Amino acid sequence: MQSTPQQGTHLKVNLEFLHTVCDGDENFIRSIIQTFVEDAPHILQRLILHAKNSNWTEAGLAAHQLKPSLQFIGLDDTLSNVKKIERCCQEPSEVDTIPDLVVSVTQDISQAVNELQHHLA
Amino acid sequence: MLQEESIKIFAVEDDPTYRKFLEYSLSLNPDFEFHLFATGKECLENLHLKPSIVTIDYSLPDMSGQELLEKIKSYDSQIFVIVISGQEDVSTAVQLLKLGAFDYITKDQDTKNRLLHAVNNARNNLSLVNEINQLKQEVSQKYEFSKSIIGNSPAMKGVFALLEKAVKTNITVSITGETGTGKEVVAKAIHYNSERKNKPFVAVNLAAIPKDLVESELFGYEKGAFTGAVSRRIGKFEEAQGGTIFLDEIGEMELSLQAKLLRVLQEREVTRIGGNEVNKLDVRVLVATHRDLAEEVKHGNFREDLYYRLLGLPVQLPPLRDRGNDIILLAKYLLNQFCKENNMDGVIFSKAAQEKLLKYHFPGNVRELKSIIELAAVMAEDEQIEADDIHFNSIMKEENFILEELTMREYTFRIILHFLKKYNDNVLLVAKKLDIGKSTIYRYLKEMEEASSQDQIPSDEFEPSI
């Protein structure tokens, strides 16, 4: 498995961080990717649902749970948006920005899952 | 080696990805026996498994990291808690460290290395804590009455009975006895057999501290209290907080300081020199002196009020000469100890050596016996200490000479021999010194020669011992 996306490809993920923390341990890398592919869509669904229902506390919690895996997968921009969602969920005056951020995060994660599924194949 | 022993670690992390990461990081060291938990509740329910280290995520679904930290610490304050957090807020970290967290690690690229480093640091600290506890236990065992105070003479049985009473309460104990009778050993035995045994034992020999420094040693001082006070220093009383202070040679304390000591003992609080802060004390006081304090009070050298304050439970240690067969018990104990410390094979005493020890009156008591035994062990041939290997302190030989209980004739022989040796066999001079006629000396010498030839007086008896 390649440690980082190849130059010129459309890959969103960047596995450099993951490689660094485990000194290139392939089993561990595979296991983290597997966890992301299996868990991230479920957490994302919770985030979408709670945001739709304006249940900001729960939405913030879901956003918080997404952070570690996004960090490992190297989705830095997505991680930044998730952090914004978490912060905005705690500020009633800023909740209006959340729906757009959720859309963006959903697209990123969906694409990343697709890419990583190919990696695992 | 504690370093190589397995160590039990709990890792509490609700995020599955990060839990995997922790599992991976901790599995790198085969000495780590770790358990992973997703909630604070699960962790708390398993604390009976006695983890040495717990790593906790700051944000858990059922409780905050701070709450979990407090609960773990209240369960067992010795557990090392390492907080791993996505929050980079310094104030959060400071707050958690103040609450007793061992380390605070942020979730980033260096987490693995910092976690392993923190766990190793905690493990090293744990080794030190275990070592300290082990040493405390050893010290405690060393000062068990039966191990630290040897003897079964009636005089010592009386002392043991008093010590048993002394350890049950916090009563002040005043220990008196001749030099070398073991006053500090008794003080330590009282401390290490009391409920304060895990707290400090601080011994202060007031005769060994320059008079001008006694006050600052005992009560401490603040920075700038006097020339040379470049920083604050706590005194011996504060050092002994929760434990015992042993004021040895209390009879040597100056009158002016006695008043200050009395105040500290009455108020149970101390104010450092140059300071205003009053520090409450919970310190047990043991004192010792070789002087007769009641006599010192009569002569105005010791305050009467302080005398009564310190008297408490008086323990009078008997001189070794009044302890009969304890001398042999102690001699054997000291000999074994010396042999062990110096990797010597078991050396024993001959009967004659034991008899010689029993005849001596030991003005320096156990301390003197110890030095006599050590020298004898070194001098002994064939792993047996003979009478000739036992050498008494020269400054006391005269008194020892009297204690040997010889006949008048034998004493006279010895005196004449001693003087002859001292004055290079100048019979005229010796006769003058002893105020006897020179013919008397010749007569005794002749008798001595005859007695020696008939083995009436053993040859070694002719050696002057005074």
User: Mind telling me the C-alpha Rg of chain B?
Assistant: 33 Å
Give the CA-based shape of chain B: elongated
Helix content of chain B: 40-55%
How many β-strands of chain A, per DSSP?
0
Give the termini separation of chain B: 56 Å
The total strand number of chain B stands at 16
Write down the CATH topology of chain A.
Four Helix Bundle (Hemerythrin (Met), subunit A)
Give the CATH architecture of the largest domain in chain B. Answer: 3-Layer(aba) Sandwich
CATH superfamily of the largest domain in chain B: P-loop containing nucleotide triphosphate hydrolases
Q: Give the strand line-up of the largest sheet of chain B.
A: 2-1-3-4-5
* Unreliable residue stretches of chain B: 456-466
What number of domains of chain A?
A: 1
Classification by helices and strands of chain A = mainly alpha
Most extensive interface between two protein chains, with residue counts: A-B, 19 and 15 residues
